[in-house]
């Protein structure tokens, strides 16, 4: 189990941990990207009339609501995030007030506040290419089994009697491949949950037959058709409050390893939330995104405390649409991966398909789970990864192709 990184800071606080998390020594330094990237992503939002704020106590929230009302901000909704020891407030901005001004207003009125806009995130799946035969001279994998074979995943699966989580579309827990799995579902979607096929496929890669045999899967669905006028994308997606609520629920549920197959812009609210969740012991594995090799880093994978996963095909070539950059940590199969039974199934493609291979390996690996920091987990996985591309870590394949080995990585 991961533990809070800054144990010296914890020991220095003369209060118990719960009080520390609520009132005491919390520090937050946003990991902001460059201004060009922020400007390019400025219109990638769900709603153009709100501002979302995180504060660390009820007292701070109450004070901010009163002061904001004096400036004609209307509170739309208040969320108590007990698992993260935060309060989230969603305000409607006054007419004529830009998002930048609203953020400045909120953070000026309350020193513990982190304010931001409601950015838009989507699942990272593409149409399968169905080029499932290896090239001449390549390793002759069975097209339906190449992904398992490439990472040396044991045919009988791996034991992992732990709680793992996924933030994704909804899933069909009556799917024949999932009926024997222990799945706890909750929806945070802004409207009717969507992308059941995607969520079901990711769940199969985590806890389906031959995957994690004894794990409890907590599935937080966040994808819906809800859209704001400035979303600029009609693909089903989600916003920041839904992702934050999902992380809070997983934290409350005792989940320590979480798979996120979503990608989108940098968001300061999400940055603070993930820093808090990681400090509480959560490990997050995320897809690097399918925006292409020249795209800016996509989040949450690009956060320094998240393990970022790219996708490779049957020939160990990187997926052509995968985002690249120094934040890429590991590679895993993600092109034309077969999900299904001997009689029925589908091939799926995208960096979102690759992420659950790493999540499952972490959940099955005692050495990974015992890491005290995210870097400890990276180091453990790197020791048993197959280097791809140029020697050593690189912005295309990261530290290489993850390997489970026959022992499920239990060392």
Oligomer description: single chain
* Tally of DSSP helical segments: 12
Strands in their spatial order, largest beta sheet:
7-8-6-9-11-12-13
The CA-CA distance between the termini, in Å, is 14 Å
Major sheet characteristics:
7 strands, parallel
Could you walk me through the main structural features you see in this protein, from its secondary elements to its overall organization?
This protein is an alpha/beta fold and 411 residues long. Helix content is 27%, strand content 18%. It is built from twelve helices and 15 strands. The protein has a seven-stranded parallel sheet, with helices on both faces. The chain has a four-stranded antiparallel sheet with strand order 2-3-1-4, with helices on both faces. A two-stranded antiparallel sheet has the order 5-10.
